[in-house]
């Protein structure tokens, strides 16, 4: 598997990342299917250890990687394809503000069958301030709404 990831990365078709949390490897995030020319696009896949699920690790990782892809690598579009029943993964893209592009019927062969997938995407123009910064700001605003006594929220 590592050999495959390295070969794909060397060919410019993939960006494989590991995710560390508190000094421990807890997940992976891969930008795959990178296509250049008039498309400049890739799709993101990810997983995180159940022991750290629900702490915002993946939205943070996706934010970092999308910013890297748009600002450093030069991609224009990133998409995430998610099975409709995968609620936690849908929450990740919803919280980050990915645009919903609809359903791809029987899109990928997984666990012995062709599975429908929902498509979510972002283009670079949609996040001029950066995806990580936007996600952090949204989280701070939500925290202030939940606790109006926090600094910066006195007049709201
Ligand atoms: C999808 C996944 C990457 C989310 O990562 P994460 O770092 O837990 O993301 P978040 O912390 O933002 O949590 C997302 C949602 O997971 C759910 N969640 C919360 N705590 C959880 C827990 N302990 N265990 C499982 N899911 C939990 C919640 O619905 C949460 O949404 P909320 O913030 O609105 O409450 C992770 O659940 C995972 O690896 N799942 C298995 C692999 C997978 O589905 N990959 C995606 C394929 S498209």
Automatic annotation (TrEMBL):
Domain (N-acetyltransferase): residue spans on this chain: 1-125
Xref: Gene3D superfamilies: 3.40.630.30
PROSITE patterns to which the protein is assigned, alphabetical: GNAT
GO CC, alphabetical: cytoplasm
Keywords from the UniProt entry: Acyltransferase, Transferase
An MF annotation (GO) of this entry: protein-N-terminal-alanine acetyltransferase activity
Family: Belongs to the acetyltransferase family. RimJ subfamily.
Protein name stated in the entry: Ribosomal-protein-alanine N-acetyltransferase
Organism field: Streptomyces avermitilis (strain ATCC 31267 / DSM 46492 / JCM 5070 / NBRC 14893 / NCIMB 12804 / NRRL 8165 / MA-4680)
């Amino acid at each position: 598997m590592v050999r495959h990831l390295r070969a794909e990365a060397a060919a410019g078709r993939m960006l494989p990342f590991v995710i560390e949390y508190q000094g421990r490897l807890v997940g992976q995030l891969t930008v795959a299917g990178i296509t250049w020319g008039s498309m400049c696009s890739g799709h993101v896949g990810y997983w995180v250890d159940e022991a750290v699920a629900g702490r915002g690790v993946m939205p943070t990782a996706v934010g970092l990687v999308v910013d890297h892809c748009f600002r450093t690598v030069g991609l224009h579009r990133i998409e995430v394809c998610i099975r409709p029943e995968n609620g936690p993964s849908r929450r990740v893209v919803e919280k980050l503000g990915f645009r919903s592009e609809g359903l791809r019927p029987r899109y990928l062969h997984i666990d012995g069958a062709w599975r429908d997938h929902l498509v979510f995407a972002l283009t670079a123009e949609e996040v001029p301030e950066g995806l990580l910064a936007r996600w952090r700001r949204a989280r701070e605003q939500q925290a202030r709404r939940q606790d109006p006594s926090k600094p910066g929220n006195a007049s709201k």
